[in-house]
Design brief:
Layout: H1 18-48, H2 62-67, E1 76-87, E2 90-99, E3 107-115, E4 119-126, E5 131-140, E6 143-151, E7 159-167, E8 171-178, E9 187-196, E10 201-213, E11 216-228, H3 233-236, E12 252-258, E13 264-271, E14 276-287, E15 296-308, E16 312-319, E17 323-333, E18 336-345, E19 350-362, H4 366-371
Parallel strand pairs: 1-19
Antiparallel strand pairs: 1-2, 2-3, 3-4, 4-5, 5-6, 6-7, 7-8, 8-9, 9-10, 10-11, 11-12, 12-13, 13-14, 14-15, 15-16, 16-17, 17-18, 18-19
GO molecular function, one term: porin activity
Function: Channel-forming protein essential for import of protein precursors into mitochondria.
Subcellular location: Mitochondrion outer membrane
């Protein structure tokens, strides 16, 4: 029987460039060695502090937005009809109808959504011909690029926005450009950084660069702070994607933002239980006297709460200006929901009220929907 050698590869020896590489390394070692050692000790010190991924400045008040009514309240009548064509990758078609007050004509919007593990695409067109789009692309667990655009025949209302988020282990950096000029750099650019300094405290800033014309350049910087509760044992055991910063979901969060004008926005979010969330928002309004009006020194406090029931979600809100609002989403079946929204402004003696429905249908069979997690097996 013929025998074959275990390996035909010859052991690799030193190359002709090895002496030169060693010489270069010896030249730079007296300078690079201490720098690398200092960085290694600094990195180890940071790891020993138990720092967390703080999120981005844009999502600093994300929990508050989920409780308050700014993104949920509406008036008049609305109907949203969605059809799920595929679950993986997700593909959905939507039809939205709205009927508001006499000053706002009826509106219709057709949209489509496509999403998989790394890509999210959303597009829509309304009755006036305005086209909107949004695209998110995840290049790596720590880097995501977002693009938003709007095309319309109304002068000055078409826009393009490009954004990139980088999530480091203990920090996040974001860059956003609105209507950027490729050749002259004009447009509105926003740079933000948020860094974790302890397991509870994160500090950062957001700089807005307004460059409408090559000869005009204005900058304004605001400073932000975020204080959270400590991670608990359940949060530490949450499974994560390899290479992605561990998620951190605190039971309470307090934020503060100092704007260039001197105004301050402070928020507090508390998760009282699995079904109850409360949020408090305080904003100061400091405006010097000008041609637009007299000096103004005011403050507005808003308190909101969200209750999650088995088949319904209720949001209630009240502010220091005498405005009371509510929003109820009642699901009778997984495919049908009834919406009710209302608001009363006692200071202005005004009110608004809205009702709506949401209907979802699918071309998938019951077995496919159960496999995709859209239905619970009986």
């Amino acid at each position: 029987m013929a025998s074959f050698p275990a390996s035909s590869e010859k052991p690799s020896g030193p190359t002709a460039f090895a002496p030169y590489l060693d010489t270069v390394a010896n030249i730079f070692h007296p300078v690079a060695g201490p720098v690398l050692n200092t960085y290694g000790r600094f990195h180890g010190w940071k790891e020993s502090m138990g720092l967390v991924q703080p999120g981005t400045v844009e999502n600093l008040t994300r929990e508050i937005q989920q409780v308050q009514l700014a993104n949920w309240s509406f008036d008049g009548a609305r109907a949203d009809v969605a059809k799920v064509v595929s679950a993986n990758p997700a593909f959905q078609l939507t039809h939205s109808f709205s009927l508001g007050s006499t000053t706002r004509p009826p509106a219709y919007n057709f949209g489509a959504i496509f999403a998989n593990a790394k890509t999210f695409l959303q597009g829509g067109v309304d009755g006036s011909g305005t086209v909107t789009m949004r695209a998110n692309q995840t290049w790596a667990p720590t880097d995501i690029t977002k693009v938003q655009a709007q095309l319309t025949n109304k002068a000055g209302q078409s826009m393009l926005q490009v954004e990139h988020d980088h999530l480091g282990p203990h920090y996040s950096f974001s860059w956003k450009s609105m209507n950027p000029g490729v050749l002259d750099g004009t447009g509105i650019h926003i740079a933000s950084l948020l860094h974790s300094f302890s397991p509870r405290l994160s500090l950062g800033f957001e700089t807005v660069i307004q460059h409408p014309q090559p000869s005009i350049l204005e900058t304004a910087t605001s400073y932000v702070a975020k204080l959270t509760s400590l991670p608990n044992a359940i949060e530490q055991l949450t499974p994560t994607i390899p290479g992605q910063p561990a998620p951190f979901y605190p039971s309470w969060t307090a934020t503060a933002q100092l704007q260039p004008s001197g105004n301050v926005q402070a928020t507090y979010y508390q998760k009282l239980s699995d079904k109850v969330d409360v949020a408090l928002d305080l904003q100061t309004i400091i405006q010097p006297a000008s041609m637009l009006g007299p000096a103004k020194r005011e403050a507005l406090a808003t308190l909101g709460a969200k209750y999650d029931f088995r088949m319904a979600t209720f949001r209630g809100q009240i502010d220091s200006a005498g405005k009371i609002g509510m929003y109820l989403e009642q699901r009778f079946t997984p495919a049908f929901a009834f919406l009710v929204a209302g608001e009363i402004d006692h200071a202005k003696n005004a009110s608004k009220f809205g009702v709506g429905i949401m209907i979802e249908s699918s071309t998938m069979t019951q077995e496919e929907m159960i496999a995709a997690g859209m239905l619970t097996p009986v």
